[in-house]
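Below is the data:
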Amino acid sequence: MHLESGSEGTSRIEQTQVSLIRGIPDDIALFCLARVPRKYHMVLKCVSRRWRDLVCGEEWRAYRRKHNLDETWIYALCRDNKLERVCCYVLDPNASVRSWKRIPEIPPRALRRKGMGFEVLGKNVYLLGGCGWSEDATREVYCYDASMNKWMDAAPLSTARCYFVCQVVDEKIYAIGGLGLNSSDTHSWDVYDLSTNNWKLHIDSNNVPEIEDSFVMDGKIYIRCCTSAVTSHVYAVVYEPSSGTWQHADADMASGWRGPAVVVDGTLYVLDQSSGTRLMTWKKERREWAPVGRLSSLLTRPPCQLVAIGKSIFVIGKGCSTVVFDVGNAGNTGGVMVSSSIPKLNSSDDVISCKCLTI
């Protein structure tokens, strides 16, 4: 019988212990494990510490993205008006039985805040700033790691702010405008770089402070400003991160931006909720807005928010009531768009913001 030397035997035992799957090279094991649907990732993490570290790591997300295995889930920030506190829900749009599920409760210090930013970067959901009746605007930022399923403290904003807009461009979070502790804060914006885990403050007097909504199109951040109580005029500005410059948005485009907006394949869609719910699209070539169709009043519960996955637009209203339709095949019957729906929660929570996170 052949006996291995002590050092060789120890080395081989250690190699077996740290292998993802005993007897299989790690690259083959990753090839197999990465094809497990996202809904089972919580189970994978329970197998071993090595599997947990893999599923929670950036290598896992990068591998699934590279091989088109990643899956997109929707996260919604809501406000429970009865308890006067915020909460978060998640939806797997590809589940056989689609339903919204509550994620772990957000940190207690942020539960009753208003005017918070809500954004997604990488595998994290960020909850930024905010204020309360007896609390000034804050710099605090919390991060929900979707792989680890828990909230953590994150790098604070450069300056305190609330009632601002958040968008992501080129893997950076932009927190723009809003109210702060100083008058100059309304003309400022923070930029978060994940690689350095740091925020950088920018100030420009051309940045319009009174903001209501935003979206990203063609690498630029479009911001809708507060409308006058006297006129129905809609005013919008555009920020171009590559040059750091502000300019006025196309007036014809801004005129029809009267609700939540989403961009699908470079085309802008807006949900007009002034009378029922009607989807509009901006025709850049003709510089005009055109109706896509109405949504059934039996399915939608305004006020709603919009998110898109591929060519599917999700209209999410009170209680996370959700209507889904494909803009690539937007048929309608009697002027009402053909769609599917996802059951609402047993609540009337207002949906503040919705974002998509892909792993």
